[in-house]
């Protein structure tokens, strides 16, 4: 066999596959021969130990071996037939049972040697085994695939059984695995004592023992992370080579902005601002991720960056994924920049078309210095005069793969990605691994911890009593109802009913007001203005208050049906209280139906107020797919790596990948690796390139 196999050729050319099976394979996402090898088992069963029949005890899963003594077949019902085969070894007899497998009668002949696995039962005084797998022994002991070994199990589809998959993967590994090209650089393989790719693939499918399986898994996991991180490192390197804007630090306006604030910046904010300004000064484009907990003061930091661009004669843009967030950023920035006479423009979809045209025109002419809008708007049709600084409020929505392309007059604007709540480190390294990181690691001084309690419906009376006492002291209260699109009308109704009941029956002497997303903007503004001014005591809301609202004297929050919120959302909501000098409270009320994961979420919320820890717990509870959006996660296509379980391997792989690219930016000495990365990531990288 001299021909070197082409691992990229279609799976139908694999041994034992053919056109018809290839169609089935496609349903599993297996298109090429290498896909076949990278279709990893979802689990294993240790069938290496064969026990004497006498030791088979009912209820246990066992593997036994013996000679076929006799067989009989019987129809039990119309659609159910039973095949019973007596098997004997030196210690006893067991009856192997198959259902609806008539064709086996041709195969299982008296006198043949057989191995079977399954669960042992005891029926009518007979020792039986419900067969899960079997193998006839041909005398060629090497040939055991389904028994007498650690056996792999796969995700399947119609037309492909475990037995078929095992057989096909095995024969193709035997024929081709010697020709596999190992992409991992030899020095790295050596440093971590990794087994070869060939050994790894053989042991991930057909482990010699579980220790070997773990070694294989470690290596393949590392490789998967390493390839991806190498791609990110290359990408990062590449846009560090682009020409960006070299902003001057004129300072005065920015300084006076900072001085105009009613507080002084935290050390952490200062550090992060320095990092950003350093990037802006450099002639390389900035691509930086700004993380900080809810309330840590990211807005100020972003504003400093935008302002620096503006005083240099450039324009700034701030983008958010939802209109509500856009509105709130716009309000914040308008307030912050009022004294400097900078008026941000607001670009949302429901603008009257004349106004919209006017704003677009002003942006193009450079008359507007700062624009706040949704991602889509700015991406699609806005023509900037001289865009210098883009802040993207990421909110977990856009990943590496979909980051916008923006360019103005041949220069790349600086880009700052900002997350509303912290994201787990492993996810940051994966989805934003090509960015530089800045982290605000402290909250402004004087923030009181928030007492959080999870309470059940039957404590509602006591809760209202407690709220009543706080109201008497002059405190204000948020009561939050969930509102999700699928049940918007119902949800809105319960918020309305809740507000009405509170006003009429429970707190008739206080002012209760409802606020929700369907209200007109000026109405919402009016309500918020009243609440801020202390003219409303209880604000009943759907999640419109999630972000941006800042009323220090409101220090009590009740979240109704808290089980319907995700952790990040709960954390954001809770961040609305705890801003004043008084002790704050957050009460999580849950309905009767609460999932086990829901219980965990409530417990996490009560245990900690640290957004970074909450994010880690969130990832553990939901997994990366749910956490970040299944589609986005799916695009990464990790086959074996698990961000929760394998975080240490990720760190190592990242370190190695970035070191390698630093040392050899063109991967000249690592052509296999380079080709492997290009093959896997080139289309995605092109998509993802900022600029
Ligand atoms: P984030 O966007 O990180 O959740 P914000 O930027 O909205 O936080 O800031 C939260 C609140 O804290 C705002 O009212 C802001 O004015 C205030 N703030 C920001 N930085 C400081 C600081 N250094 N000291 C005191 N208050 C601050
Ligand atoms: Mg720069």
Helix tally equals 22
Question: Which sheet architecture does the biggest sheet show?
Answer: 7 strands, parallel
CATH class of the domain at 451-608: Alpha Beta
Output the CATH homologous superfamily of the domain at 451-608.
P-loop containing nucleotide triphosphate hydrolases
What is the CA-CA span between the terminal residues? Answer: 49 Å
Bound molecule kinds, no repeats: adenosine-5'-diphosphate, magnesium ion
For the secondary structure, the number of strands is 20
How confident is the prediction overall: mean pLDDT? 87
Radius of gyration: 32 Å
The CATH topology of the domain at 451-608, please? Rossmann fold
The percentage of residues in β strands lies in: 15-25%
CATH architecture level-2 label of the domain at 451-608: 3-Layer(aba) Sandwich
Low-pLDDT sequence parts: 399-404, 686-691
Which structural class do the helices and strands define? alpha/beta
Strand order of the largest sheet: 10-11-9-12-13-8-14
Q: Which range best describes the helical content: under 10%, 10-25%, 25-40%, 40-55%, 55-70% or over 70%?
A: 40-55%
Q: Which outline best applies?
A: globular
